[in-house]
Amino acid sequence: MHCPTSRRSTTLTLAGVVQAGAVPIDTYATLAEIMSTWNRPDAMAFVANVGAHRAPIGR
Q1: I need a surface site. Which of 31, 32, 40, 59 has the fewest CB within 10 A?
Q2: pLDDT tens, position by position, for the chain (59 residues)?
Q3: Which residues are CB-contacts of 50 (< 8 A; sequence separation ≥ 6)?
Q4: 55: nearest Cα among 35, 26, 33, 20
Q5: Cα separations in angstroms, 20 against 1, 11, 24, 28, 58
Q6: Helix orientation angle between 43-52 and 27-35, rounded to the nearest 10 degrees
Q7: Which run of H or of E encompasses 16?
Q8: What global pTM score does this model have?
């Protein structure tokens, strides 16, 4: 069941956060920041783990 009020609430909340100075980023950008460098021995294991737990795209 789709709830348009929830979508509007999310949009307005995000707009307020941006107006306060926050910069929204997506999940993959956050994970890239956590990794900080990809030149490390466990980089491919990290990618595999993220890929195994990602949400379906386009839903």
Answers
A1: 59
A2: 556 668 889 899 999 999 999 988 887 788 888 888 888 898 888 888 887 877 676 65
A3: 28, 31
A4: 26
A5: 32, 14, 11, 23, 29
A6: 160
A7: helix 4-19
A8: 0.45
